[in-house]
Write a structure and sequence with these properties.
Elements (H helix, E strand, L loop, with lengths): L5 E3 L5 E3 L15 H13 L4 E3 L8 H9 L8 E6 L6 H15 L6 E4 L7 H13 L6 E4 L3 H8 L10 E4 L11 H8 L3 E4 L11 H9 L4 H10 L4 E3 L6 H9 L7 H10 L13
Parallel strand pairs: 3-4, 4-5, 5-6, 6-7, 7-8, 8-9
Antiparallel strand pairs: 1-2
Helix pairs in contact: 1-2, 1-9, 3-4, 7-8
Length: 280
């Protein structure tokens, strides 16, 4: 089994830095079995953080996760997300109950606001905190929040209880390294990187292919190794192929040379100025 590195949440809980995404799962019943098997394969390999959302297939992905974690709930760190239009104080609570029912569990380990909407942050946080007190969620966080959003969140009552920020981050989307990533790192707020392989497009990068060959690795593994090298970053690649999941896990074993890190920086330059946070 690969030695998956870990990241500490503000609570001190340690979670895998390489988890499992579920975007686009649950949309086709003919693919359900292989999607479930892929998640089980990841759990077997130590990728015990599963990220999902009520948005994914309108709850279908949560139902896929429910099947994958039968008998394994206690070993799984379960993350889900609430739609912004459900993020009023009462709406957050109701949405969480629906997610819990679809997931077949009594609690979430981390519950995120999927992106900002019309409801004031204070209302959303109040709902999160109520869920936390009730034992429905162990922690809460946000997604697609830029630095200004995070600073606003910190000013909200109990906003400093934010446990994570999930954003689009990969070799080709490095803008948040300029300010958001160091800000989160300084405060011990983990960053969850979604679309870490740019939905497969990075796997076709000539520079990545060239470097990967030197390590007898895949370009996707190099892209994941880039994120695993960063403090406080959790990568959540999605794959409905059990063998691809196993390949993703092996990214934890890669040791890239300083020369090749420099080559990656040349091919995918880090930002030299502030850029708006990108989203997919």
């Amino acid at each position: 089994m690969p030695d998956i590195p870990t990241v500490n949440l503000p609570s001190g809980i340690s979670v895998p830095a390489l988890g499992l995404g579920t975007w686009n799962m649950g949309e086709d019943s003919r693919k359900a079995n292989i999607e479930i098997d892929s998640l089980k394969r990841g759990l077997n390999l130590g990728m015990t953080l599963i990220d999902t959302a009520e948005m994914y297939a309108e709850g279908g992905a949560e139902r896929i996760v429910a099947e994958a974690i039968i008998g394994r709930r206690d070993e799984t760190f379960l993350v889900s997300k609430v739609y912004p239009w459900n993020a009023s104080r009462k709406g957050v609570i109701d949405a969480c109950e629906r997610s819990l029912a679809r997931l077949g569990t009594d609690r979430l380990d981390l519950y995120l606001l999927h992106w900002r909407g019309e409801h004031p942050l204070a209302e959303t946080v109040a709902g999160f905190e109520e869920l936390h007190r009730a034992g429905k969620i162990a922690a809460w966080g946000v997604s697609n929040f830029d630095l200004s959003d995070m600073e606003e969140l910190m000013a909200v009552p109990e906003g400093k209880n934010c446990a994570a920020n999930q954003v689009l981050y990969n070799l080709s989307r490095r803008g948040m390294e300029y300010d958001l990533l160091p800000w989160c790192q300084e405060r011990g707020i983990p960053v969850m990187a979604y679309s870490p392989i740019e939905q497969g497009r990075l796997a076709r990068s000539g520079e990545l292919i060239h470097i990967a060959k030197a390590y007898q690795a895949t370009p996707a593994q190099v892209a994941l190794a880039f994120l695993l090298e960063r403090d406080g970053v959790i990568a959540i690649p999605k794959s409905a192929n059990p063998e691809r999941v196993a390949q993703n896990a092996e990214a934890a074993e890669l040791e890239i040379s300083e020369e090749d890190w420099a080559a990656l920086d040349a091919a995918f330059p880090p930002p030299e100025r502030k850029r708006p946070l990108e989203m997919i």
